[in-house]
Amino acid sequence: MDTQAVTGPAEPTPSAPSATPTPSGRGSFGPRTAARWLGPFLAVAATLIWSGNFVIARALHDSVAPVQTAFWRWVIALVAVAPFAIKQVWRQRAVIRRHLGFLSLAALLGVTLFNTLIYQAGRTTSATNLALIAATSPIMIVGFGLIGGGERVTKRRAAGLFIALFGVVALVSKASPKVLLSLDFSSGDLWMLVATATFAAYSATLRRKPEGISGLSLLFTTFVIGTAMLLPVYVVSLTVQGGLDPTRGTVGALLYIGVCSSAIAFFTWNKAIELIGATRAGFIYYLQPVFVAIVSYFALGEPTTPIQVLCMGLIITGIALGSRSGAKKPADAAPAADGN
Questions:
Q1: Residues 282, 141: contact at Cβ < 8 Å?
Q2: What span, in angstroms and rounded, lies between the C-alpha atoms of 77 and 222?
Q3: What sign does the dihedral 117-127-297-292 (CA atoms) show?
Q4: Which of 108, 126, 234, 263 could form a disulfide with 71 if both were Cys (CB 3.0 to 4.6 A apart)?
Q5: Cα–Cα distance between 122 and 60 in angstroms, integer?
Q6: Using one digit for the tens of pLDDT, what is the confidence trace for 46-71?
């Protein structure tokens, strides 16, 4: 209701600043400003948590079958998310039923396939190769975004994409062509390439998230569907390969990937894509090898060389260049939740 229509026009107050936000959002901390900062922060948080996934994939390759690792990961994630999500899922059950097709596709790509393929890849290839192949993920995300018509790629973003990719390749290869050419590729590398494409497709799919389904409902529902899809394969694995040995190391690793890499990281990644789009979030995914190098330095005492620092600088420069949105372009004037 318009208050002035009842009380009459008020005296003008020229000195009072206008409360109406400018088209660019400057001068106020509104939803677009919050999204501009919160989206990248959430994408960074998810990427940081996921950085431990490659290490665990290699650590468990001899002790736990890939399908069993994935299955228990999602069972643990379901238990972690359920107390927070059940009420929302029940309230939104009608919308969820209407969009079971979308939810099933997201569950297949992000839950059933993606990490199962990583654990399969970790059985026959090195963590270095896993990180190198994962570096192609942002390019694939851009490709799926273009196919879906949801996001555009400017020259600035393309330049940032390849600068960051160059930094990742140089970091993994220690800036030595000889090291890069001497990498021993195996069947695990093919599994990892499929996993990377699956993750890119999952990230692009999230742009189509239906209205009325909250982030927690999306998370819990896809976890349930994806785990159900894994169950028959898990039973076959138990029959053929036997069950896992629940040692302290195995249980600790499963708890990490179940609670942190699944419940927390997937929620923050999904929210980041909702705020800034799959392409810009994909740029931030390039930070993964940087985080791995930092964690290795502090946790394992592995030295950091000047070349590594330079490569990290290239990656961060590429991300900063590629993830910036041009404020003057009409398409960037849309709400941040639309991914621009």
A1: yes
A2: 11
A3: negative
A4: 234
A5: 8
A6: 988 887 776 676 667 677 888 998 99
